Amino acid sequence: MNHLPEVWGRPRNDVYGAYDHSYLQGSHPMQHTQQPIVTGTSVIALKFNGGVVIAADNLASYGSLARFTDVERLKQVGTHTVVGAGGDISDMQHLYEKLLDSLIIKEEYQNDGHSLRASHIYRYLSRVLYHRRCKFDPLWNTILVAGWDDGKPFLASADLLGTTFSSPALATGFGAHLAVPLLRRVCPDENAVKSLTKEKAIETIEECMKVLFYRDARSLNKYSMAVITGEGVEQVPLSGEGKEKVHVEWKKDITLENQSWKFAEGIRGYGAQTV
Amino acid sequence: MTSIGTGYDLSNSVFSPDGRNFQVEYATKAVENGGTAIGIRCKDGVVLAVEKLIGSKLLVPGSNKRIAMVDRHVGLACSGLIPDARHFTSRARSEAASWRKFYHTPIPVSSLADRMGGYAQAYTLYSSVRPFGVTAIIAGMDEEGGPGLWMVEPSGVGWGYFGAATGRGRQAAKAELEKLPLPNITVKEAVKHAARIIYFAHDDNSKDKDFELEMTWVRHEKLATAESGEGIVKGWGKHEEVPKELVAEAEKLAKESMVEGGDDEEMEVEE
Amino acid sequence: MNSRHTGNLSVDGVHVDMEHLKKGEVNLGTSIMAAIFDGGVVLGADSRTTTGSYIANRVTDKLTQVHDTIWCCRSGSAADTQAIADIVHYHLQMYNVTNAEPPATRIAAALFQELCYDNKDNLSAGIIIAGYDKRHGGEVYSIPLGGSLHKQRYAIGGSGSTYIYGYCDANWKENFTEGECVEFVKGALSEAIKWDGSSGGVIRMVVLTGRGAERKIFFPDENYAGDGK
C-alpha cells in the first residue's frame, strides 16, 4: 500500500490519471493594504531647552473630502511620551488603542515605580512598523515620538517602512517639506536646543501650523498641541530615587490665530489688469 | 474531614461515595493556611488588604507584592499557595486583555469574576490536574455596576460580597467585617478598618510571625462626587496602592487599637 | 486565483472607488445616516439597490437590527455588510446572555470595527452604527472603508452622502427634539435621493429611544410627507 496519505482512497493513477495537485496548493499571492483610505496629514515637533513640543491638526480626510474634523492624532503613552501619527487613521487607531494601550497596561502590571520612557516607546513602535512591512502588510503611518528620556528631551520619527531617524526638529508628510525649514531656522542642530526657550519653540510650532494651513490642502485650522517638559537626573539610579519629573501639558481644540489674508484685497487680475 | 484516606481523595475525577471531591477540600485547606486577605466594598470604591507573612528577615521590605493589578480598574488579592496565585493572576490578566482586544473596552468586574470562576472550576474536573490552592478576591469598579467585590474559591464557586475575607484569619476578619455598615462607607474610612482588621486577624492567628500590611484600592478618578455625594458611585475606577501616608496612619491606629484590645485580654487572663 | 480585487484608484491615486465590487455583485450605492437627539437616535436610509445602472431592488431595507436598540445602516457591498451584521448580531446575543446585561452601543461599534479593520483587504463596507441605552442615551458611530471608528453626533454615509455635507452641516443642531431630528434626517435624505442616481425609492427610518425601536417610512409619490406611520 502507498504510504502517502494524499493518495489514499483516490482513484488509481494508471487508470484515471494523476491527481491534479494544483487544487492542493493553498498558497496564492496575498495582498494587503496597499493604500491609505482615511488619512491624517502632518505632525510637527521641536525640541527646546527642557522639553519637546509636538502638534497635529484634527482632520481625517477621505481623499480630498474633509471627512472627520475632530480626530485626535496625538496620544500620550505612559508618563514620559507623546506620540503623533500621520497617514492611515484606522492603522493609527490600531497602533494607539490596541498596541500601545496594552503595552502600557503590561508595564503597569509590574508596579515597580518605573515606567517606559520615550526611547522605549520609540523602539517598540519602530520594531512594530518594520515587522509589518516585512510581512508586506505595512501600517500606513509616519509617526513622531516626543518625550523625555534619561534627563534629556527626546524626539524621533519612524515610518511605514521601518525607517528611523532623529533630529531636534522633525515633521511628517507635507510638514517635512514646509515646516522643517522653518523649524531648523530656530533649531539647526542639537547644540541649538539649549538656547531655545519653551515659549519660542511653541511660537515657532504655531507659525508652522499656520503655514501648513495656508499651503497643505489636506489640513485644518483646528489642532492639538502637547508640551512635554522634564527635569531630573541623567542616570536613574536603581533605587528609583531622584527620578525624573516629567510634565505633559495638553492644549486641545486650538484654532489658528493671526492669519494673514487682508493683502488679498490688493491683488487684482493676474498680469496687466489693475482694477 | 472524617473520611481522609479512604482512597477517594487521590483523584480529581473521582467522587467519594457521599458525593464529595476531596481534592477541592484539600485545596481549601491550603488556602486556610495562607495569610489573611480581605476586601471591603464601599460606596465609592473597593479596598483590598493582605497580611503578607514574612518568611525571612533577609527579604527586602515591600518586595514580593501579594496584590496584583489585573487591569487598570481591577485588583486581585490571593490567599493560599503563592505560585498558584501567580498563575491565577496571570490568567486573570489574559482574560482582561482579551476582553479589551475584542470589545475595545475594559472588562466589567462581574464578567471577570465569572470567567475566573469558570477557569478554577475546570481544574476540579480532570485527573491530570489539581485544583488551585488559592482563594482570590477580585476588586474593581466598572461603569455599569460601580464598585464590585468577588471571591473565587478553589471549587470555582464565586460570590459577590460587601466584605470578603480568606486565609487563616478569615473567621476573625469576617466577624469584624460584619460589624461595618457596608457598603455605606468611603474607601478612606475603609482603609482604616482594613488595617485594623488585618492586625486583629494576625493577632488572632499568627502572632509569632512577622508580617507586612499591603493595601490597595480601586476608586473613581473623579473623587469629587465620591467624597460629597450620596449613594453608590459608578464609572471606571483606578486600581492603585493606597498612598503611603494613609497606610501609615491606618497602621498607627490599628496598632493602638491592638494595644487597647491586648490589655483587655491580658486583664481577662489575670482575672 | 486572479479574481482578487484590488480596489480601483482614480487618477490621483488617493480616491478609492467605493463601488469596487466583485463581478456581478449587488451594490448599495446608497444614502444612509443617523443622528442623535435628546433621549434617542434616528437612523435613516433610502431603499435603492443597483447592479450597474439596473435597480435590482427598489424597496430595500438597509437598516439592520443587531440588538434590541442597536441598529446599523449598511453601505457598500450588500453581501459583505449582511455577513458582518450577522456576525455582530451573534456576538451581541452572546454578550447579552454571558454577561447578564445588554451590550452598550460602543461594544457593537467595536465588534463592527474589529471585523472591518482586520478584513479590510477583502471587504467593501461603510457602516453607521446607532444605538440607545439608558446609561449613554443615543450614540452614533461611523466606520468608513479602512475600518477606522469615529464617534459622531450625526453621521452620513454612502454615495449619496457627498451631496448633503453642506445641508447637514448647516441644518444640524445640538439638542434636537425627536420630531426635529426626524425632519432633519428626512430633509437630508430627500436631497441625497434627488441628486444621487444610486439612491432612491422610499425613506426608511428607525427611531431608538427608551420606548424601544420604532420604524417610519416615507414615500416618494407623497413627496416624503406624512407622519411616517
Please give a quick description of this structure:
The complex is a heterotrimer of chains A (275), B (271) and C (229). Chain A has helices at residues 13-16, 89-110, 118-134, 174-186, 190-193, 198-215; strands spanning 38-40, 43-48, 51-57, 60-62, 65-68, 74-77, 81-88, 141-149, 152-159, 164-166, 169-171, 222-231, 245-255.
Describe the structure in your own words.
Chain C: GO terms for molecular function: threonine-type endopeptidase activity. Chain C: Its EC number is 3.4.25.1. Chain C: InterPro entries: Ntn_hydrolases_N, Pept_T1A_subB, Proteasome_sua/b, Proteasome_suB-type. Chain C: Pfam families: Proteasome. Chain C: It comes from Morchella conica CCBAS932. The complex is a heterotrimer of chains A (275), B (271) and C (229). By secondary structure, chain A is an alpha+beta fold. Chain A is built from 6 helices and 13 strands. In chain A, strands 1, 4, 5, 6, 7, 8, 9 and 10 form an 8-stranded antiparallel sheet that branches. In chain A, helix 4 packs antiparallel against helix 6 (198-215). In chain B, helix 2 (82-103) crosses helix 3. Chain B has a 5-stranded antiparallel sheet. In chain B, strands 3-4-5-6-7 form a 5-stranded antiparallel sheet. The longest helix of chain B is centred in the last third of the chain and has 27 residues, at 244-270. Residues 224-228 and 263-271 of chain B have low confidence and may be disordered. Chain C has helices at 78-99, 105-118, 165-171, 178-195; strands at residues 27-28, 32-37, 40-45, 49-51, 54-57, 63-67, 70-77, 125-133, 137-143, 150-152, 154-157, 203-209, 212-218. In chain C, helix 1 (78-99) crosses helix 2. Chain C has a single domain, classed as 4-Layer Sandwich (Glutamine Phosphoribosylpyrophosphate, subunit 1, domain 1), CATH 3.60.20. In chain C, the strands form 3 sheets. In chain C, strands 1, 6, 7, 8, 9 and 10 form a 6-stranded antiparallel sheet that branches. Chain C has a 5-stranded antiparallel sheet with strand order 11-2-3-12-13, with helices on one face. A two-stranded antiparallel ribbon of chain C has the order 4-5. Chains in contact: A-B, A-C, B-C. The A-C interface holds A 28-29, 31-39, 60, 62-65, 67-68, 71, 88-94 and C 1, 4, 6-7, 9, 12-16, 117, 120-121, 142, 144-150, 152, 162, 165.
